[in-house]
Structure formats: C-alpha cells, structure tokens
Amino acid sequence: MRLFGLRLLQLIPVLLIVTLATFLLTEFLPGDPVYDILGPEARPEQIALVRQQLDLDAPLPSRYVSWVSDALQGDLGKSLITGRSVSATLRQRMPVNLEIAVLTQLLALLVAIPLGAWSAYRAGRRFDRAVTTTSFGVVAVPPFLSALILVAIVAYKLRLLPNTGWTPIGQGIGENLRYIALPVVTLALTEIAVYSQLLRSDMAATLQEDYVLAARARGLSNRHVLMREALRPSSFSLITLAGVNLGRLIGGTVIIERIFGLPGLGTAITQAIPAKDYTVLQGGVLLLAVAYLLINLLVDVSYTFLDPRIKRHG
Amino acid sequence: MRLVAAMLALGLIAAACGDDGGGTGNATNTGGSSSGSAKSVTTTVVTDTPVKGGTVTIALFSEVKNLDPLKATGSGGSDGNRLFPIYGALVTYDPVKAVSSPLMAESFKATDAGFTKWTLKLKPNQKFSDGTAYDAAAIKANWERAAAADSPCACKSIAQAIASMTLPDPLTVDLTLKSGNATFDNLIARNALNYIASPKAITDKVDLVNKPVGAGPFRMDEWIPDGKMTLSRNPDWTASPGPYVDKLVYVIQSNEDQRVTGMTTGQFDGFYTATPSSVTTAQKDNKDATYASVAVNLGQTFVFNTTKAPFDDIRVRKAVIMAIPRDVLAKDILLNSIPADYFALKGSKDFSEASALPKYDAAGAQKLIDEYVKEKGPITFTMVVFQQTLDQARAKFIQTALDQLKGIKAELAVGASGDNVAKITSGKGDFQWTSWGFPTTDPNVGLYNATHSGQPGLNPSNYNNATVDKALEEARLLGDPAARAEKYKIVYEQLAKDLPFFPYTITTNGYVYKSNVKGGVVYEDGIPRVDLLWFKK
Question: Which residues have C-beta within 8 Å of that of residue B324, sequence separation ≥ 6?
C-alpha cells in the first residue's frame, strides 16, 4: 500500500512535465486557432477581437499557470475552436478508446497465450515454425493495411460486418460489438503476433527449469505444466508489454479511428494539433498521461502478485 | 487484391483532401452523370408519389465545429448540410436558374428600383423546437446578433450591410441596405444568415454549439462528434411537403473509399463526394444510383499575386498557364476530375467563348519566358502550399511541369493552414502564388469578392481593373438575371485577358444515393434538401 501511495505521488511531477512540454510544443506549432474559428474571410478587427476573447494574447507562462489552476479544480476549459467543454468531449470519447483497447488486449491475450505456450512446448517443430513465420508476416503488415484488407474481405465481399461507424454500448451491446469487431480484430492481429512470440521465448526458457522438468516427471498433464507451472514465471515481459500497449492503444489508434469512422480520443487530439486548440490538446494529453501512468503502476503492483520475492525485497 | 490496392491508393489521397474549400457551383445535376458541364443538367423529376417512413443514413466527410449559425459558414461541403435540417432555410439558391426561391420565407423581394429596400415575408405558423414562433422578430434578432461588433460570424459584413430593419407585422421584415444589391436574397442563401436560431434560446444563452434550437425539417436527437448525428422528423415543419423520412442519420467517415464501400454494403443510403471516380465506383457497384450535385466553377484556382514580381507581368502569368497540362493534372492528380478550359462554366448564362484559358503550349510558354528573361533576368518564385497531401501533389506537379522550361524556377513553401491563409488574405501581398478557392454560386458574391479592387484580402491576387469593377458594380444593381449575366461575361472575358488567377478543374459537390432513395436535390453549393428525400418501396 505504501509502495502504491509513493508511486502515486511520483505521478505529480511527471504530469506537470508532460503538460508543460505539451504546452510549449503547442506554442512552437505554426498557425493560429483564430483562423480556424473565423475562416479565410475574417477581417483583421475580428481576428483581434477573438484573440482577446480567448486570452490568446496573454504570455505563455500566465496561460499555463491559469490552465493548471483550473485543471486542479476539475475545469479543463472549453475548446477554442468549437467552444465545447473539454471534459465533456473527453467523457464522450474516452469510452470508445477504452473499449477498443480493453477488447483488443483481451482478444490478443486470449489467442496469444495458448498460441505462445504451445509454440514453446513444441519449439522447433512444424507448429512452432508456422506460428513464428505467420507472426513475423503479420507484424510486417501495418494496421491500416490490415484494416483495408479486412474491410475488403469481411465487409465488402462477405458482408458480415459493417465497414465503418460506431454505436455506443448504451444503444445495444450486440450492435456495439458488431461495429467494433473489425477495429478490434485489426489491432489485435499485431498484438497477437508480438505477444505469442514474446511468451514463446520466455516460456521456452522456463520449460528448461528444474521444477518444470520435475512436474513433467511427476506425470502432470501438458496443460497443467504449461498453464499452471510455467505460465506465471514466464509472463513478466508479457504483462509489462501488455501494460505499455494498453496505454498506447488508448490514445494511439488514430489511423484505425479514421478508417473505421470511430469518434475516439486520437481523432480529437490530432485535430486539435494543427488547429492549435491547446485546451483540447492539453486535456487529452493529460488524460492519456494519467491513464498511461496508472496502467504502468498497476503493472508494477501486479509483479508482486506474480512473484512474492519482489514484495519481500521491495 | 485489386480492390485493396485501389482503396489504399484512393484512401491515402482522399483522407488528405479535407473540405471542398467552400467551392461553389453553377449547375444542379441529379442525373447519373458526374459531368461538371452545366449543359448536362437535368432537374429531378419525381415521377412517383413520395411516401413517408424509413431512416435515411448519409455518410459525410467531416465533422462540423459547432451547430450555432453564428459560427458557421453555410457552405454545403462543410456545415450547410447540418444547418439545413436543424434550422431550415429562408431561401434556397438554384445555381442553374441563378435565382433564389423562398422556402421558410413566403417571399423575399426588393421594393425599390435601386435595390436598397427589401421586404422579407415569412410563411405563417412556423415554430422553433422550443415552441416559440419563427417570426419576423426572430429574423431581426438573429441578423442583429450577426452584425454585432463582437460577432465572430463570417457573415458579419453582410449583416452589417443592412442599415435598418422594421417589422410592420409579425411575419414581415422591411430592410434598408446601405447600398443597393439586386441579389441580396442570393447573398442570404449563401451564408449563415439563412439559418435562424430561436431568439429565446439566444437570450437564455442556450448552448447552441451543442444543442441547437431551430425550426428546420428535422430535430436533433443525438450528436456524437466525429461519430454520428441522429435527427427525427419535425412534426411542426410546414415549409415544404416533406420531410418524408422518419429519421435522418449523418455518419462521419473521412475516408472516401469507406464511404463508397459503406453504401455498397448497405450501411449508408447515400454519401457526400466531390470526387468523380467515387461517383463512378458507387454507380458501378450500386445499380441505378443517382448523383445529386452542383458543378463547381472557380472552386479551385491558382492565384498569382499581380502586384509582386514576377507575376506583375502578364507574360509570366500566361506562360505558367500555358506550361501546365491541365488535362493531365485533372486526370492523374485530381482523381479524374474535369479540366477547366474557361473562366466561366460552359453552358451557364454568363458563359462566353472569349473567357477561354490559354491552351497548353510548352513551346509558346518558353517563348514568353525567354522574352521576359531577356528583359528582367531569370524567373524564380515561391508557391505557398498547404499541408494537405493533395495540395502538395498538385504543387509538385506544377513544379515539375515548369522544370521542363528554361529560365523559370518554382520553389515550394509548405505551411500550416492558418499561416498560409493569413499571408494570402492579409491584402499585403506577402506571397507570389498559391492555390485558392472562390466561394461562388451567384457571381455577385464570389466573383465580386475575388475580383473587385475594393476587396483587399478577399481578392488575393490584388487584381485591379476598372472595367471589371464597373461591370461588377453595375451587375449588382440589375434585377434581370440575363442582364446581369451580360455584365459577368465582361468580367470573365477581362479575366481571360488579364489572368490574375486561373481555374484548373471543374469539380462537383454532391450526394450519391442508392436507387431506392428518391428526391435527391441540392441547393446552393451542394446542400442536400433532406426534407425531400424518400424511400421507394
């Protein structure tokens, strides 16, 4: 519990650095949000007025301090471009990314764990070689291409699933899953390939351990040996990577969002960058940073359950 | 595999295309052809009786920033398609006939010979979704809001052109303009002043950005930005026989191919496109699909800064135009669009053979350049290029075309949209060449802004020609469309002589609909009349 509290405290400076860096980077970007608001027919006096209304003429440190003090009170401000509440925007978009990220990870782990474990058990044999070759092939294909191939086959040719769009869970879980299936499978493909190879490698080493050989000698079933004896000590790298990837998947799926027409956080953030909509950008980055750090914290804590020695030795 | 390759190639380009640039049109086409020529225009003939019911789902290419008319453009490609169902429209402009027709208005007419006095009469018994009356007071409140000193509206200068408004009865607004304008109704049709929000909602400071209160044919049920917008039929709508469909769903899909595929797989009943090849693909995959569209003229142009060397010399402007194979540019870079050969749209009322652009002639171009180089030295210039992939592709194409000539060198300066727009519209002439679109349906609006010398910023080429100014000013005071067209002919012909900018393609803004969707019509620069859509059983 102490470790957890300490790690939570360490998040504060990290968040400050992340938000300050984002603020500075935004400032260095070319362009002016006022042109996005007013359009090309704006007159100079209108531009000056809107700049004043949005407080864009204030010095950067003053704007940053003002943003931080508002954020600490739970107010992330309003989008400079749309005037929409940033908190409301994030609340609306985050479920899309969370659902994609969680389902992608679940699907990837569900497929990759048995695949990787069996490959390790059959190391060097035909099944292992087939899985390894396929995995390298899948990793080499960028997700946007996998997406288009899946759309062409599953949506266009077979007409099994919709090629684009989004239905919130609140409007029916069945419809929601129908729409999210292709994006999740697209993203999971790469994860499955990476996870299965990572687990295969770690588990192949674990299977050479004395206690595993002893378990085998005791006549325990392959399933028991692989899933009960060898999996836990072989899964440190897998859990670390899955944690990092979960953070990445929450905010880093913009191309998939675009292809499948998903109203996600990545789209909101990438649209905010060229428009210099720094309130949306800051809010989005803050949320992603918190999510990323919390996930990594949970991953760290999970190590203590996987290996009690870590807990004992701090 | 071929399908994937095609989707990939088109997807990369189309994803980068963004807005239609507020492009505007001069023809309404609801036939199967994607031709941009006004000659091929047919109007929708509804041979069957419309029936009520169903949900029509239409895929759009981009999300709107907000739903408050004050912060909207009214352009068909960007927000007009969302504003119309929610707010309706006072008038709709037909680019083929070059006239506005009243919709929520009963009539909108000038009442004096100088076109300074106008009377707007509204249809009775119209009301906003908050139950308040859609009346003359609502029009006055909205237009005063747009004209206010702190108004961010792109329509502000038009609202400020109104000197006074009086309300002789609840359904009538008498306007006095600061200066005469024979097509003030067309001007209203073109911008956000056409879309009226509930004055009660404005006074109560309702969040119109997210929760619009209008009196249009539909009412918004739900809006998931970058996802979809669901609207239901407004039972109080009386301005047209529709709406026929129960629900209208707009889905955002920025990838052009996904929109086309979505219609083929049955996800959408229609989709927006300005890409001819998408129309062809959709019509191939969907038998008898229709394309309700507006052909765009002057929507995409290359602008020379006529006050800065080397483009202050007509020989260089002409040489550059002659050096670019526009047919190749249109076919290979702009996805099989139609190359522009004239300033005016062929078949339109203001078309004139004398408005022809110089033909591709590399040898002739070299001759003009040699002449210039002999007098003033080698030509170097910088093109202001936008970050969009398509803009960079066409700029590189032109750079390559000019590289084939001696004595001329073009550099590209790729910049952020805001910076580029600032340079181009500053009126200070901080650029030499750029790509630009002139929002035009009625030439009184777009052509006037683009070419009248009294429009610094809006006239980015800094073009200044007394004949053109005179023709534009005279046209503004002519009530007869045919007489106005004669004046615009003079402008187009003079442009063909002076070449301050040049259109390079004719594109179309429009909506492809499946064969069972009837009543597909667009107005203005491509705003769909969703109140007229219905499903044939």
Answer: B360, B397, B398, B401, B402, B504
